[in-house]
């Protein structure tokens, strides 16, 4: 499928499922604002996740715990305005679904109603099957995030998940149970490639990998890692596809220099009065007067 075909149609779960069946991987990225969302859609991305990683890369916090529901909803809605065709996934922040099922349904529903999401992602374990059933019964398309779960990082021994055969088997059991409970897609973070492959082959819903090898149906990375922006993680599974840090810093340095030198804004970047409206004897300045010397 070419870029033009992708951007011409709304990406649906059905389309992602067909891509799975055809063995044609799809691409996802995180995104947190309108301008980037426009660019992602223009580039033909299929899926966008407004991840709670925004607490780290946008807000500068050390963990995802600081992502609050109100800011997640506001920024997710902005991304939807920029990328109306992408399959948009909202991310349930810490404590927005752990307290009780009623709150989980109400909060998840806001991602659909207020932010225009196609699905909502939850960091889950085998103990959450009743929650997934209740959400699905309420009509919420659930993406089950398994493997490494940043909201539970304090309780995990290691980042890489399913290193042993037993752990891989357990992951497979959990993934299948999630689908049986109604999950419409699965995200596997930092899972060994072999275990991720087994899950992808076994379940009928799209599986998106984040640091989980090449066999998943789709891949997702954090946008800042891909664009080489401050806050990017230097971890094995990420690749910086471009480094935007230097061009942005240089552009801002040039702007600052030109403002200080008085060469920006120039005539071409200024509004003008109609010539016959100029008061007698007053000509429009074509450039800034020489700066005054500071008093000695
Ligand atoms: O919050 C996030 O960005 C994620 C990752 C899986 C990309 O959950």
Q: What is the mean predicted local confidence, pLDDT?
A: 94
Strand order of the largest sheet: 1-2-3-4-5-6-7-8
Taken as a percent bin, the fraction of beta residues is: 5-15%
pLDDT < 50 stretches: none
Order of helices and strands: HHEHEHHEHEHEHEHEEHH
Rounded to an integer in angstroms, the radius of gyration calculated over CA atoms is: 24 Å
Number of helices: 11
Name of the CATH first level? Alpha Beta
Question: Which architecture does the CATH hierarchy give at level 2?
Answer: Alpha-Beta Barrel
Bound heterogens, unique:
3-methyl-2-oxobutanoic acid
Content-based structural category? alpha/beta
Oligomer: single chain
State the end-to-end distance: 69 Å
The largest β sheet comes out as: 8 strands, parallel, barrel
Describe it.
It is a single chain. The protein is 39% helix and 13% strand. The chain has helices spanning 3-8, 13-22, 34-42, 54-57, 69-82, 101-113, 129-137, 165-181, 193-202, 223-227, 245-261; strands at residues 26-30, 47-50, 87-91, 119-123, 142-147, 185-189, 207-210, 218-221. The chain is built from eleven helices and eight strands. It is elongated. The chain has one domain (3-246): TIM Barrel (Alpha-Beta Barrel), CATH 3.20.20. The longest helix is centred in the middle third of the chain and has 17 residues, at 165-181. The chain has an eight-stranded parallel β-barrel with strand order 1-2-3-4-5-6-7-8, surrounded by six helices. Helix 7 (129-137) links the parallel strand 4 (119-123) and strand 5 (142-147). 3-methyl-2-oxobutanoic acid is lined by residues 30, 49, 51-53, 91, 187, 189, 210, 220, 222.
